[in-house]
Design a protein that fits this description.
By secondary structure, this protein is an alpha/beta fold. It is 42% helix and 19% strand.
């Protein structure tokens, strides 16, 4: 009598274990509605005079009171710093939604992220100088829009105090200081940069401005990349802190700093054990709690730790823990998106990723299970972003508006935009209509546009 083949039974049993381990990432509709409601509570705290100081979602004023008209003209420089990337751009605005753009990318060396303030801003000034020389702009008089992708407390369009470092940066001597003044000092030390005026903005604000130049209905900006943040156009009468600044326009763009949502523990009810571990092992434990559940810098690490749980449960890779799988950040968000880009039933890329983690002999079941892990985590990210966006759509209150979206995760991750839209449709009340539009050239172009509109306003 032939021995029974238990292979399929084992595959199905292992799949059930993997699904059970991933279950905490699959949240109910009611949970997303609760997240949406809690975000509104925090928005109101951030805007309040007496609650702002203790609010997790700070809702910083940007002093961007109007969005572009589309009539801006001239050449404007932009410096964009975000994560591992530094870009310098020259945007030649020709009106009527027309522009020409030249740009250069610079890698930010890891040592610069923890170097002295002087060396850090000297590096940024050198990037500007190299670009200006390359494109023969030495004899132009240039306004600079500085996109600084870190939490800022602004007192004007020309002054931004760094509140805290995120995204793996920890340059001493910058927190609590005006980054515009520090950049200006570095520019003056060089003495070869024809920059007359510097304005500062968060990269999410830049995304909104870039989108609003072509879409007048744009009122919300969202950035899902290595980090995560949102901004929106708020009525000035609701910004209690703004009343201390004298005359003001009816509206202002608010930089939510949404990545800090949950820092006060209000979301602990839906955080998984993996989320707590990622937070504990991060450079800044207890900070950017929401960002650590949705942003590209952390999604791969969430997947690695979940995979490790599945291995330890004996449901994947024969229960063998390799040396490589124990290395933090060895599994990246880029690996996740490559796995999900593959057609179901094709495992070439997945096996290459496994190979990088020390596994040469993997089954189709292992590959399918890893795909399930990645999908559960990326879908939660899109849904959680949608929960906060739904709050802002209703907060703005327009019958129809456009959300400007950008960031490496939004642009590159398969199905991310559609997942986000689908969840938004479930969460936003039916009397509010919206579209999500990818911002062209994002924060960099937005910085140049803000420099242009600021110059025009001063004339």
């Amino acid at each position: 009598m032939p021995k029974p083949d238990y292979t399929q039974y084992i595959i199905e049993a292992n799949r059930r274990i993997v699904k059970d381990i991933c279950k905490p990432f699959i949240l109910s509709d009611d949970t997303y509605k609760r997240i949406k409601d809690l975000f509104l509570v925090d928005i109101k705290k951030g805007l309040g005079k007496y609650t702002h100081k203790k609010a997790s979602v700070k809702c910083y004023m940007t002093f961007v009171e109007k969005l572009p008209s589309g009539c801006e003209h001239g050449k404007f420089l932009a410096l964009e710093l975000s994560g591992d990337d530094c870009r310098v751009l020259c945007v030649n605005l020709q009106g009527d939604d027309d522009f020409k753009i030249e740009w250069q990318h610079f890698d930010v060396p890891p040592e610069i992220k923890v170097d002295t303030a002087k060396h850090f801003f000297n590096f940024l000034a050198k990037c500007l100088s190299d670009f200006i020389v390359k494109y023969d702009l030495q004899y132009e008089e240039l306004n600079l829009g500085f996109t600084f992708a870190f939490p800022l407390k602004q007192t004007s369009i020309n002054k931004g105090i760094l509140v805290k470092w995120t995204k793996g940066y920890n340059v001493p001597g910058v927190v609590g200081n005006d980054v515009i003044a520090l950049l200006q000092e570095a520019i003056e030390r060089r003495g070869d940069l024809p920059i007359n005026n510097i304005i500062i903005l968060n990269n999410t604000t830049g995304t909104l401005i870039s989108c609003a130049w072509k879409h007048r209905e744009a009122k919300i900006g969202v950035l899902i990349s290595g980090g995560f943040n949102m901004c929106y156009l708020e009525k000035s009468k609701h910004i209690q802190l703004f009343k201390n600044f004298g005359n003001y326009c009816p509206t202002m763009v608010i930089n939510c700093e949404a990545g800090a949502f949950g820092n006060d523990g209000v979301l602990d009810f839906m955080r998984t054990s993996v989320d707590f571990t990622v937070n504990k092992n991060s450079m800044h434990p207890g900070q950017q709690v929401y960002e650590k559940m949705v942003a590209g810098l952390y999604l791969g690490e969430i997947a690695r730790l979940t995979l490790l749980d599945c291995i330890n449960a004996g449901a994947m890779l024969k229960g063998i823990v390799s040396k490589e799988i124990l290395t933090p950040m060895v599994f990246r968000t880029h690996d996740m998106l490559q796995i999900e880009l593959q057609e179901p039933g094709h495992y070439e890329t997945t096996r290459k990723v496994f190979g990088k983690m020390g596994y040469r002999d993997t089954t189709s079941g292992d590959c399918e299970n890893l795909r399930h892990i990645c999908t559960a985590i990326s879908t939660r990210s899109a849904n959680m972003v949608a929960a906060c966006l739904a709050c802002l759509v209703e907060r703005v209150g327009d019958p129809y508006l456009i959300i400007g979206a950008d960031g490496s995760v939004y642009r590159s991750y398969p199905n991310y935009p559609s997942l986000l839209r689908n969840r938004l449709k479930k969460l936003v009340r039916p009397d509010f209509k919206f579209d999500v539009v990818q911002a062209e050239d994002g924060a960099g172009q937005g910085a140049a546009l803000l420099a242009a509109s600021t110059k025009r306003k001063k004339k």
